[in-house]
Specification:
Elements lengths: L7 H20 L12 E7 L4 H34 L1 H7 L6 H14 L3 H10 L5 H4 L2 H19 L17 E3 L7 E5 L5 E5 L4 E3 L7 H11 L3 E11 L2 E11 L6 E2 L4 E6 L3 E6 L2 E6 L5 H21 L23 H35 L2 E5 L3 H7 L1 H7 L1 H14 L3 E5 L1 H4 L19 E3 L5 E3 H8 L3 E2 L6 E2 L1 H10 L1 H4 L15 E2 L33
Parallel strand pairs: 9-12, 12-13
Antiparallel strand pairs: 1-7, 2-6, 3-4, 4-5, 6-7, 8-18, 9-10, 10-11, 14-15, 16-17
Helix pairs in contact: 2-7, 3-4, 5-7, 9-10, 10-13, 11-12
Length: 538
């Protein structure tokens, strides 16, 4: 059936609409407004919450946990079906250098719905019934993306199989995709700035006017560089505390002056050696954590005694815990519950202290130089061989932080191939000799006597990394060794007691322009005075 012919008036209206759309499209630039690899940083600000708000936030996190588990289960199911297809094995057998390999993998992912967009759409479909009032659109899509990324890392072999989030652990962060979502900056009824989580629900910021990082974030918000908002929660002494994280476009506040030297780094499970142009240093890695580790061990032993006294049926005649389920958690004493809270809080304090020590050491190393060479090490092998030491000090996490900070400072971390160089077995003269791990002093026939880790940090600076075949330039290493009296003249017994010097701090000062109307008010909010009684004046 043909449509009836349009009148002249209708044609004119349609023509004007078409011209308007074309003009609007011509005004919009197709160029990317923000580069894809542009730097960003995160400003963390504590939030003030009431007990009623805590209940609302806890319910929303619980709804988000259920949607995440649903997305994770769906992603695992689709990945299992995809990997069971015979074509998956055939594509895996193709050479990685063949460009058709990636195209066939993408085709399989689209066929089975194992893509980021498919999982985000599935998460949006999970917002039904009461979940629709707790988890909002962009948050659900981000949860679907997180589930896809976790399963995808398992599929490509980077991580293990992801686990579902239990009620006791739950999720610890929720975020929106941009500023059009439910999470954004808003104002309370008394004019205080805060994190708005949908209309009418605002959590005020607890800002510190003396904190330069808060002022730096305020300036970026005023300049329109806020990209998205995130809310995080941490359990301290059994109670949830909440913080807002503002993802901002730009570079973080510079606290220390970066160096301009070439730095050689040799990191082990418990010690780290740093060699620059004007000094060599070696120190124990995160030595300040020993006291906290002893406190955690005392709490673990106390909890074990309470478990054995409260539920002796859980153990066999040899004192070993029986396999299968344990019903002790159903009838735990209040003291045992308090021990569990104290143990979790001690582990949280240790993790935060370790992160602080990692940042301090990374800043001191970057104060020597921003171009860092180090051997490419398997930190999983470290975990298998030195489990307790690696669990306490986390050298892999430190290297991740150092790589990120070096890139932010305009430098980079260069990984040197261990198999082609064997720096721990090599001397300045170029001779190689295998040494056991117990031998920490390098002694060569040429007369070189040096600490093994310091020498490895010195030699890694002379590895040619311009091509894929990393080779040690023994000639340049020998020339520098002849003039490095600070390394050659060291008594070996003093090598482990020389710390990396602190970096030169940069004075922050106060911004030259006021930041009162930046979207984040730094002036403390005045508490309204409560009337003395029913008849008091307003």
């Amino acid at each position: 059936m043909e449509a009836p012919p349009k009148s002249n008036g209708e044609r004119d209206i349609l023509y004007e609409r078409d011209v308007g759309r074309r003009r609007a499209a011509a005004l919009v630039s197709r160029a990317r407004k923000r580069p894809k690899d542009a730097p960003t940083f995160v400003a963390s600000i504590p939030l003030e919450v009431t007990m009623s708000q805590v209940r609302t936030i806890t319910a929303r996190f619980e709804g988000a946990r259920r949607i995440y588990n649903a997305c994770l289960g769906e992603a695992l199911k689709r990945a299992r079906w995809m990997r069971a297809d015979m074509r998956w094995a055939h594509v895996k057998a193709i050479s990685p250098d063949d460009p058709a390999r990636s195209a066939k993998f993408r085709e399989l992912r689209r066929e089975y719905g194992f893509t980021e967009q498919d999982l985000m759409s599935y998460a949006s479909g999970c917002r039904v019934s009461w979940l629709r009032e707790l988890v909002f659109a962009q948050e659900a899509q981000v949860l679907g993306r997180r589930a896809y990324e976790a399963v995808n890392r398992w599929v490509i072999g980077e991580r293990g199989r992801p686990r579902f989030k239990s009620v006791s652990r739950g999720l610890h962060s929720l975020e929106a995709k941009d500023l059009t979502g439910a999470l954004r900056i808003g104002q309370t009824s008394d004019g205080r700035a805060g994190l708005q989580w949908r209309q009418g629900f605002v959590l005020p910021f607890r800002l510190d006017e003396a904190d330069p990082c808060h002022r730096w974030a305020a300036l970026h918000v005023a300049a329109g560089r806020l990209l998205r908002c995130r809310i995080t929660r941490t359990r301290i002494q059994g109670r949830w505390t909440f913080r807002a994280q503002l993802v901002l476009d730009g570079v973080p506040l510079q606290r220390y002056e970066p160096g301009r030297q070439l730095v050689g780094l040799d990191i082990g499970p418990s010690e780290i050696a740093v060699v620059s142009d004007h000094g060599a240093f070696k120190e124990t890695f995160c030595a300040e954590l020993a006291d906290q580790q002893r406190e955690i061990r005392r709490l673990q032993r106390r909890l074990d005694r309470q478990h054995r006294a409260g539920s002796p049926s859980c153990y066999d005649e040899r004192g070993r815990h029986r396999k299968g389920g344990c019903d002790w958690w159903r009838a735990r004493s209040k003291r045992a519950d308090q021990t569990i809270v104290d143990l979790a809080d001690a582990q949280r304090r240790l993790a935060e202290h370790r992160e602080s020590l990692h940042g301090n050491l990374a800043n001191r190393i970057l104060g020597q130089g921003t171009v860092i060479k180090t051997e490419k090490i398997s930190y999983r092998a470290f975990q298998r061989a030195f489990g307790l030491s690696v669990a306490r000090r986390a050298p892999g996490t430190f290297m991740t932080m150092l790589t990120r900070k070096a890139a932010s400072a305009g430098g980079k971390v260069i990984d040197v191939n261990t198999w082609s160089t064997a720096l721990s077995q090599t001397c300045v003269c170029g001779a190689q000799e295998r040494k056991p791990l117990s031998q920490r002093v390098h002694v060569c026939r040429c007369g070189v006597v040096a600490d093994r880790d310091v020498l490895a940090g010195f030699l890694v600076r002379h590895v040619d990394t311009t091509n894929n075949l990393h080779r040690l330039d023994a000639e340049s290493a020998h020339v520098e060794w002849a003039r490095r009296d600070d390394i050659r003249g060291w008594p070996v017994s003093r090598c482990s007691n020389r710390r990396v010097p602190p970096a030169v701090p940069v004075g922050h000062g106060k911004p030259s322009e006021p930041v009162g109307h930046t979207g984040i008010s730094l002036s403390p909010a005045k508490t309204p005075r409560r009337p003395a009684g029913p008849g008091a004046a307003a």
